[in-house]
Write a structure and sequence with these properties.
10 helices, 288 residues, mainly alpha, single chain
């Protein structure tokens, strides 16, 4: 049975179904990461500032990905195991807290569904060997960063750096691209947006993006190689422009309100993972 699930070639049905179910469970965990990691960072920052100024630490209780148990933000009701089954619990509870009937954000089941569907597609496309399992890590980190950046306009180092180093390690023996292409991709990815950042700042006096975007593109370059960087930047810019215009026109999103770029980089990275080689060979005229 294990041979049917692990190290199966692309297009295998059993590992694809297994990956999709596993992805639903991981999606539930990612919801916790998305919610708590920014709060953990803020608490750490608050404690550091207080310690530097000789003030009592404002946060002394344990707060991490595991502790305390998940609870309703409205009434404090602790979520039980039966209330935490991905997607199914949300439907059974009709999107409301069992205790106070406050609405539960639809984003929770959507993140779970996104993670499950993407997990199945990746294993179907890349198999369940080392490369296929690596793509799951790639996707999970990008999903977490996408929603954290959308909420807070932050791309935590706790996620960007592991993604970057994992890309270099995965390509140590050329899982996706030769190691040399991965190293150049990491450096070029960082420097490309770093250059855009400083050019924009010199011209306008404003910061057009954050340093997290540099690190995220560096990580994508480490996974996909330097040849994919132009396609990633093109895709992310096109999607970002369309979404940005739509927000301004339909959602009354002010022009002065910043729009996070990380989600568009993440989406472009996933698209290039699936179709980048075909696009490069068909339209750009060079083999990967």
């Amino acid at each position: 049975m294990l041979d049917l699930v692990f190290f199966a070639p692309p297009g295998s049905l059993v590992p694809t179904i297994f990956a999709a179910v596993f992805g639903l469970l991981i999606g539930s965990f990612l919801n916790v990461v998305i919610h708590r990691l920014p709060k953990m960072m803020q608490r750490e920052s608050d404690n550091y500032v207080a310690a530097e100024s000789g003030q009592p630490l404002p946060h002394t209780d344990r707060y991490n990905i595991v502790v305390p148990r998940s609870a309703c933000p409205h009434c404090g009701h602790q979520i039980t195991a039966t209330e935490n089954i991905p997607v199914i619990s949300y439907l059974a509870l009709r999107g409301k807290c069992v205790a106070c009937k406050a609405p539960i954000s639809v984003r929770y089941p959507l993140v779970e569904l996104l993670t499950g569907v993407l997990s199945g597609l990746l294993v179907w496309r890349f198999g369940s060997g080392i490369a296929g399992l690596a793509t799951l890590l790639f996707a999970y980190l990008l999903i977490a960063m996408t929603f954290i950046d959308a909420d807070t306009q932050l791309l935590p180092d706790d996620l960007t750096y592991p993604l970057l180093w994992a890309g270099l390690l995965v390509n140590l023996y050329g899982a996706f691209v030769p190691l040399q292409d991965a190293v150049i991709g990491a450096a070029a990815g960082y420097l490309a947006l770093w250059g855009v950042y400083w050019l924009f700042k010199l011209v306008t006096g404003k910061e057009g993006m954050g340093y997290g975007d540099f690190k995220l593109l560096a990580a994508l370059g480490a996974w996909l190689g330097w040849k994919m960087l132009p396609i990633i930047i093109l895709f992310s810019s096109l999607v970002g422009a369309v979404v940005g215009i739509a927000l301004i026109v339909f959602a009354r999103h002010g022009r002065q309100n910043p729009i996070p770029f990380g989600p568009y980089l993440a989406a472009a990275g996933v698209l290039v993972l699936f179709y980048g080689k075909a696009i490069a060979e068909a339209y750009l005229g060079f083999p990967i």
